[in-house]
Design brief:
This protein is mainly alpha-helical. The protein is 73% helix and 0% strand. Residues 202-206 have low confidence and may be disordered.
């Protein structure tokens, strides 16, 4: 059982890495298996198709990202500072990956949205669910800021959708220009979007 589980994880890890560097369309089963160091038969033992593999990669990545978002947006700090922490950790993660492979890989979900959303309904639906979940997580923080009179928005959920879209767009630019500095304006732009001022605590960090 342990070996079986390890083979599946190696396939998922290889597939994610190849998707990030080469995209989904150019991905071949044989290439995945070579990168994972497993026989080709192992792929079809775990996955019915490339699409089912893509869905598994998406789910595994979201499980980790959801934990990271929950940690960044949780805690006792003021809500807007928690939102800023999400931006900072996103930028730090991209910078770390860039140091490892030499390029900004961008967002796995954004990359797959651009490449696959018009090709497979299953992937499109799953990505919609993930982005909706991200919006809900941010909306809860914005609603808290609204209650504390630290923000001025008519609809926290729609404001959250704009914040997530802005974050995703800046990550896209970071990939295009291969520069994490593209995420620099996020905080100021977010404050303007929310009709908020920078909390005093932002001067000393969070």
């Amino acid at each position: 059982m342990g070996r079986t589980s390890d083979a599946r994880e190696r396939i998922l890890g290889a597939a994610r890495s190849l998707i990030e560097t080469h995209g989904y369309a150019a991905l071949g089963v044989a290439e995945i298996c070579r990168a994972a160091g497993v026989p080709k038969g192992s792929f079809y033992y775990f996955f019915d198709s490339k699409e089912s593999l893509a869905l598994a990669v998406i789910d595994e990545h979201w499980a980790g990202q959801r934990r990271a978002w929950a940690a960044a947006l949780g805690g006792q700090a003021p809500p807007l500072l928690r939102l800023r922490r999400l931006f900072e950790e996103t930028e730090a993660g991209l910078r770390l990956a860039q140091q490892s492979c030499g390029t900004v890989s961008g967002c796995l979900f954004g990359n797959l949205t651009l490449e696959m959303s018009n090709q497979t309904e299953a992937v499109r639906t799953r990505l919609q669910e993930i982005f909706d979940a991200q919006v809900e997580m941010v909306a809860a923080v914005i609603a808290e800021a609204l209650e504390r009179r630290e923000a001025e928005v008519a609809d926290p959920r729609e404001a959250a959708r704009s914040v997530v879209a802005q974050l995703e767009g800046q990550v896209l630019f970071a990939k295009l220009y291969n520069s994490t500095h593209r995420l620099g304006p996020l905080w100021a732009n977010c404050l303007a979007l929310l009709g908020a001022r920078a909390p005093r605590e932002a001067v000393t960090g969070i």
